[in-house]
Amino acid sequence: NYESCKVLEYLTKLTNLVGTSNADFPSGDPGMYQLDVTLRRGQNLAARDRGGTSDPYVKFKLGGKEVFRSKTIHKNLNPVWEEKACILIDNPREPLYIKVFDYDFGLQDDFIGSAFLDLTSLELNRQTDVTLSLKDPRYPDHDLGSILLSVLLAPREEQREVTMLMRKSWKRSSKVTFSMWSSACVFISLKFQTQSLRLSDLHRKSQLWRGIVSVTLIEGRELKAMDANGLSDPYVKFRLGHQKYKSKIVPKTLNPQWREQFDFHLYEERGGIIDITVWDKDVGKKDDFIGRCQVDLSTLSREQTHKLEMPLEEGEGYLVLLVALTASAAVTISDLSVNSLEDQKEREEILKRYSPMMMFHDMKDVGFLQVKVIRAEALMAADVTGKSDPFCVVELNNDRLLTHTVYKNLNPEWNKIFTFNIKDIHSVLEVTVYDEDRDRSADFLGKVAIPLLSIQNGEQKAYVLKNKQLTGPTKGVIYLEIDVIFNAVKASIRTLMPKEQKYIEEEDRLSKQLLLRNFIRMKRCIMVLINAACYISSCFDWDSPPRSLAAFLLFLFAVWNFELYMIPLALLLLLAWNYFLIVSGKDNRQHDTVVEDMLEDEEEEDDRDDKESEKKGFMTRLYAIQEVCVTVQNILDEVASFGERIKNTFNWTVPFLSWLAIVALSVFTIILYFIPLRYIVLVWGINKFTKKLRSPYAIDNNELLDFLSRVPSDVQVVCILFKVSLW
């Protein structure tokens, strides 16, 4: 009958999909095909480094999204990768975009060339070897080498099961009723919906990290001497995917002791490879390469610490590492309909998890953060059409999640919920809006930075987007609703532990305005000490007899009755006095307009630098001078920040930290009052002398410096708008 003929026609078309012909590709069914690509090797790639070589790696992009990235092959123009990738294809008419880069640590990677693979030219279910010539649109005549691939395009296995099932059903019966036709359609629809959901889950999982890789760099042994004095100044660079770290420099040694820890996020369930290179620091010229090694994470068991002695390739010596893989489910992303805190049962579980009763349950996480990214309004137009393709990046320390892209819209609505586990309550939540660009990196539209301690739970607020340096507003606002739940005791203990280090994002650059700003900040801190010394000197000189007499009597009383506990007691009184001034409304602190003016000048200079960056600057020929200036600039910044952090502790800039200082000073006052100093010094000395014996691989830290690292400097106060909210 007619219905039977239609079913036969439909099934015939469907079964042809598993054949070898590619004449007719469906254009819209999601998850219809699977592309298996083997990246074989490169041939005669273009040299991008000074030594006439390159450090090439390859990216695959589909629909403007990166779907694969290869490992880096160092110093080779004919690299051999032999890496496999499995890619789900939504639309086989969309080509696979292949880009090759030269890796430069800490700098922007150099573009080598790109090519397109036309998927419609491939035969289904047949492996094909493909050679693609690399091109650069700016220099179309240049020979940039080629990339060799093996590709196999095939329908998904679920689709084959549907087809084979229907073939067998057709052979068993020559009569097909309309109800069978309906059942077949429903079955096919369910299969394709499952594929579509799996595809969306796969794209979503690519944003989330599957675990944490903790790497402790212990020491180096018998490294190669690179300097004329028979020694080296070694440091180590780590890279796992996009994540980069750099160790401190240990001067004049072949057996350096680092004892530094770095945490990487593991995005791939099968593991990954950590590239490790060792360098000798040289002032005024390019650093010398000492050696390299790799750690294959897929060979290491989880939830266990591995001590590795890695011999250096292309060099001499060993590196001693401790590597631990920890599974984690710390971050999630969902729609607004899935709200953990609105579900009373889930909210109670979260509150219980971070209650004082669970204080010592898990010291890694001190709290829970939920961020609702609702919408943005009046964004900057980044396209020639006067529109943008905005998406949002939410970052907390090294946790990074993305929303979907809203195309051709200056008032996008995302309506997404992000959740994070908080490891440091003093962290700053960063929300950045970008414009998606298929052919190049995303364009920056705006950014906000919100300290977790300044968040008011459950309040939907509009935040004005700022520039990259957070020194001034840009166009547009973003609407967020944020909730923070944390354990104050665990957060206080975590404050005295080393601060989590962020990934290395960009190299320090020389800035005249930044150098001047740090010099002025340093001068202001020194002037405070000079003015205090002048005041004391004036008391000695009896410039004001009443004041000098009062100072003299106070000096006699203090020296005659001095006890050590009076030092923290005096600091405690200073904190209490400033607190009283703030509560009573008598605080006469003025807004720091000097720092704001300097930041505005620096922003203008950044704009000029961006315009001139396309031109060749003379700074490349003055590399040594630049490095020295950058070092001086950073030293000034560190010293000025240290003094400002001490001042801001007593000024109640961050009330949580000031309260914590009050508790600590009170405890110290009581201890010093009741316990003789000799016993305290004895306990401290025994602890210091036996620390390495009790824990050989312990990482040295100073609790006071770790505490001060959480206190914002004056620049951070102005940029991130820390607000005093007294409890």
Automatic annotation (TrEMBL):
Localization, UniProt: Cytoplasmic vesicle, Secretory vesicle, Synaptic vesicle membrane; Endoplasmic reticulum membrane; Recycling endosome
Cellular component terms, GO, for this chain's entry? Answer: endoplasmic reticulum membrane; recycling endosome; synaptic vesicle membrane
Specify whether Metal-binding is a keyword of the entry: yes
**One GO MF term:** calcium ion binding
Q: Which GO terms describe its biological process?
A: regulation of neurotransmitter secretion
Which key words are in the record?
Calcium, Cytoplasmic vesicle, Endoplasmic reticulum, Endosome, Membrane, Metal-binding, Repeat, Synapse, Transmembrane, Transmembrane helix
Enumerate the InterPro entries for this protein: C2_dom (IPR000008), C2_domain_sf (IPR035892), MCTP_C (IPR013583)
Using the record's annotation, list all stretches that form the C2 domain.
14-132, 193-310, 344-465
The topology of this chain with respect to the membrane is: Multi-pass membrane protein
What broad class describes the main subcellular location of this protein?
membrane
- Source domain of life is Eukaryota
Residue ranges crossing the lipid bilayer per the database entry: 549-580, 656-684
CDD domains, per the entry: C2A_MCTP_PRT, C2B_MCTP_PRT, C2C_MCTP_PRT
Record family assignment: Belongs to the MCTP family.
Q: What is this protein called?
A: Multiple C2 and transmembrane domain-containing protein 1
Q: Species name for this entry?
A: Bubo bubo (Eurasian eagle-owl)
